[in-house]
Write a structure and sequence with these properties.
- The complex is a heterodimer of chains A (about 260) and B (about 300).
- Chain A contains eleven helices and no strands.
- The longest helix of chain A has about 35 residues.
- Chain B has a domain of about 170 residues: Rossmann fold.
- In chain B, the strands form two sheets. A six-stranded mixed sheet of chain B has the order 6-7-8-3-9-10, with helices on both faces. In chain B, strands 2-1-4-5 form a four-stranded antiparallel sheet, covered by helices on one side.
- The longest helix of chain B has 23 residues.
- The relative contact order of chain B is 0.16.
- The chains are: A mainly alpha (about 260), B alpha/beta (about 300).
């Protein structure tokens, strides 16, 4: 419908690209030249001159995805470790919760790009700065949701554990940690979407040495290439959906099914 | 079956009968520090191998009593000892069966039973043997690999009992373990628990609000009353185990004890201000018959 509207009404492609333009954009980022968005004539959709396929592996898109995903992996891991630890501390020590709880709730509502200026001033325009924004943008959400999830653990598990000799670190390792799995899974799922959004924001504003997806988006804007801008946005959404669909949602479902929190399908 | 029980008990040096004396002496607990204490001046001596059932209405402090024995609650006054040693905290020598089972949902039935042995550092091969024996004792050998939510209510409680027995405790503490079950399942578990008790000769301290359940199971019934929680009567049940749970003797005893409890309630009622008094509309209202043991009682 989108494509039809474009073809018949005649929107201008530099304002609002049709799906075919977006597809062209994606393919050109992979070093494949097509003109799917042009009127259908002889030779469509291939370009009239020049090589159709360049070195796909050297296309900016693959590199950007690789760079962004690496950053995400590193940053999200650190965010989970720091946020998880803080969440545990807030859950187990009341004084820490009273001190940090309201602060974290406030910081959680702060849009992650607001950490960018501080990241630049503290770390400069480099990987550290980007990771800083990613971690700051996601760890508060992880800490808060982990704490809230841990609070829903029925106290009877702890009592049953004590009765069976699970004291000290054993209580954490064999009772509280497994009991927190449903909370942890939800917290990770939520934390991931925060992390991905923060990373994209950071990459958009940091022109670091390695070019992530956010940078490609910014390049598209610089060249007024609307097709590329929409193409990169589509890729971002796709990665977010894929990660949720194939990693976080199944993990959460598996835990819930094991715990009997969900009807067996 | 007795050989499997001997197998479980034989692995620890002390025979069960020689240990399991649970003593509470002048125990007093007041949660909010003011007003009426939850339990007041409770003295209770459970002999090794004795099946003691504490019966009383909700709020009489019977669960508090059990939690003091378990070491989950510290009394303000008085002493709680197990085989002469003061109780300072929870531990596997006083294994507990909870009303809402408290099984770990992330583990299978067998892994739940194995948990206490794992904490005690028992070797893997011995763990496997003892878990298999314990599951056999509660007739759940075929459900070892099931997850907790795949078990029925009665099965969950049997796993909970196996989990408590497998660590070879001196005393088994049971906090209204069958209150949430349907009447048939409850009757079945009463029979199975009696068999287990006859075979293992564990000291059992069992808490319930059901007089029928108490008479079916107990060597000795301890009747508690509320505001403050105190022991008002101790009644020996001189019937042999395992009991025919629907026999005339049991029915008569249940009626006698209910009468005593009713008299006590009326006595307490009379001391209250008129607007706080409560009159039963029909006989049986005083004891929660609906959640009590089968209709014959």
């Amino acid at each position: 419908m989108w494509e039809a509207a474009y073809r018949f009404i005649g929107w201008r492609s530099y304002v609002f690209p049709a799906p075919s333009h977006v597809l062209d954009g994606i393919l050109s980022l992979l070093n494949i030249r097509t003109l799917l968005g042009d009127p259908v004539t002889a030779g469509w959709p291939w370009p009239k001159s020049g090589a159709v396929v360049g070195a796909v592996s050297h296309g900016p898109l693959l590199e950007a995805i690789l760079v962004s995903c690496t950053r995400l992996l590193v940053g999200f891991t650190m965010s989970v470790l720091i946020g998880g630890l803080l969440g545990l501390l807030m859950w187990s020590i009341k004084a820490i919760d009273e001190l940090l709880g309201p602060l974290f709730l406030g910081l959680q509502t702060l849009p992650s790009v607001c950490w960018v200026p501080l990241g630049i001033l503290w770390f400069g325009i480099n990987e550290k700065g980007i990771l800083f924004v990613l971690i700051m943008g996601s760890m508060f959400a992880i800490a808060i949701s982990l704490r809230d999830g841990m609070r829903t653990i029925p106290p009877i598990y702890r009592r049953a554990g004590l009765m069976l000799g699970a004291f000290g670190w054993r209580q954490y390792a064999f009772v509280l940690l497994p009991a927190s799995l449903p909370a942890l899974a939800t917290s990770l799922r939520q934390g991931f979407s925060f992390a991905w959004r923060s990373l994209m924001g950071a990459e958009l504003l940091f022109a670091a040495q390695y070019h992530g997806l956010g940078f490609l988006l910014e390049t598209g804007r610089s060249f007024a290439d609307v097709a590329q801008v929409v193409a990169v946005m589509a890729i971002m959404v796709l990665i977010g959906i894929l990660a949720d669909r194939f990693v976080f949602a199944p993990a959460e479902q598996r835990v819930h099914r094991r715990f009997g929190l969900m009807m067996a399908e | 079956m007795s050989s499997s029980v001997a197998g479980i008990l034989g692995k620890t040096a002390t025979p069960a009968i020689a240990r399991g004396r649970l003593e509470l002496h002048g125990v007093h607990k007041n949660f909010d520090g003011t007003g009426v204490p939850a339990v007041q001046d409770i003295t209770l001596d459970c002999r090794p191998g004795e099946f003691v059932v504490v019966v009383g209405p909700s709020g009489c402090g019977k669960s508090t009593l059990l939690n003091i024995a378990a070491g989950m609650i510290k009394p303000e006054q008085g002493a709680a000892t197990i085989d002469g040693k003061p109780i300072t905290g929870p531990g596997p020598d006083r294994a507990m069966v909870f009303q809402d089972h408290g099984l770990f949902p992330w583990l299978t039935a067998a892994q739940n039973v194995e948990f206490g042995l794992k904490m005690a550092g028992v070797s893997r091969t011995e763990r496997q043997d003892r878990v298999a024996e314990a599951m056999k004792m509660v007739h759940l050998s075929r459900s070892m690999g099931k997850l907790v939510h795949e078990l029925s209510g009665g099965m969950k409680q049997r796993v909970a009992i196996a989990r408590a027995l497998v660590v070879n405790p001196a005393v088994l503490l049971m906090d209204e373990p069958f209150a949430a079950l349907d009447a048939q399942t409850r009757t079945l578990l009463h029979q199975q628990l009696q068999e287990l008790w006859v075979e293992t000769k564990k000291t059992i301290l069992f808490v319930t609000h059901s007089v029928g359940e108490a008479v079916r199971l107990a060597d000795r019934i301890v009747v508690m009353h509320t505001h403050p929680g105190r022991i008002r009567a101790e009644i020996d049940i001189p019937l042999a185990h395992p009991r025919d749970i629907d026999s005339r003797d049991i029915t008569d005893l249940v009626q006698r004890i209910r009468k005593e409890i009713e008299d006590e309630v009326n006595r307490v009622n009379a001391t209250l201000a008129p607007e706080d008094q409560w009159k039963p509309k029909a006989a049986g209202d005083l004891v929660d018959s609906a959640s009590d043991v089968g209709s014959g009682i």
